[in-house]
Amino acid sequence: MRAKTSVIKIAWSGRVVAVQPRIRLMRSFDERHHSYQGYVLRIDGTCGDEACEFQIAVGKAAHEKYRFCAGMEVSGLSVPVPDPRLETAGFYKASRIKIEKNVENALPDGPPFLGVPPDLPTYRQRGHRRLDTRTYGSKCLTCIWGCRMPVEMIIDHWNPSRKRYRFETFCYGSKSCSFYRAGPKRKVPGRQGMSYTEEDWIDGDATAHRGPDD
Fold first, then answer.
1. In whole angstroms, how far apart are CA 53 and each of 31, 43, 60, 181, 199?
2. What tens digit of pLDDT does each residue of 96-155 get?
3. What is the pLDDT of residue 156?
4. Cα separation values, 66 from 36, 62, 111, 188, Å
């Protein structure tokens, strides 16, 4: 019989300072594939015995039920993620979620936008543009349209076990946002020292169906 592995559940609570989509990106040279998995709550509070700011991954069903947004006070239990290269959050599999206090006052109009994020199909339909990492950290960390994605890169499609990992930041928001900065073009490593540069037209094509204020 297999021995059962005990799963450590960590109790957490605090004030939500941001809610962003939880999206994973797979790259293979000039090809890319997105996996829309749920949402990430950035919380200022207590995780285990430590007072800190931390991130909790939640599923789309939980978001549909609770409609998370900045300003809420929440609590729950979660499990540490098994591979930090594949998650921006430190914890996932949230359970016993409880809204301790809801938002009472109207949230300010952005940017950054702090309301209830839309469903995942809306993010997919809108498409994204690359977002400068420093701009994300200084201006877009709390915006519902910002997203920091874990990226898994297959270096050699003939040998898919060869992989590298990194994080990239993107914007799903209005193309007229005054905070937006694209940052440098991104390069994807390939086999035998080759690399692919993701040109600006990729972002233009992904968001061509939207007007400047959509």
1. 35, 6, 22, 26, 35
2. 999 999 997 777 787 999 999 999 999 999 999 999 999 999 999 999 999 999 999 999
3. 87
4. 19, 6, 23, 38
Residue 59, C-beta contacts closer than 8 angstroms, at least 6 positions apart: 37, 38, 39, 94
Residues with Cβ within 8 Å of 113's Cβ and at least 6 positions away in sequence, in order, are 143, 144, 145, 173
State pTM to two decimals: 0.93
| C-alpha torsion angle, residues 57, 59, 62, 63 (rounded to 10) | 80
Per DSSP, the residues of the chain read -PPPPPPPPEEEEEEEEEEEEEEEEEEETTEEEEEEEEEEEEEEEEETTEEEEEEEEE-HHHHHHH---TT-EEEEEEEE-S-GGG-SSSEEEEEEEEEEE---SPPPP-SSP-S----HHHHHHH--EE--HHHIIIIITT-TTEEEEEEEEES-TTSTT-EEEEEEEEE-S-TT-TT----SPEEEE-GGG-EEEE-HHHHHHHTTTS-TT-
- Token pair in block for residue 95: 């359970």
Nearest of 55, 45, 202 to residue 130 by alpha carbon: 202
d(CA 199, CA 195): 13
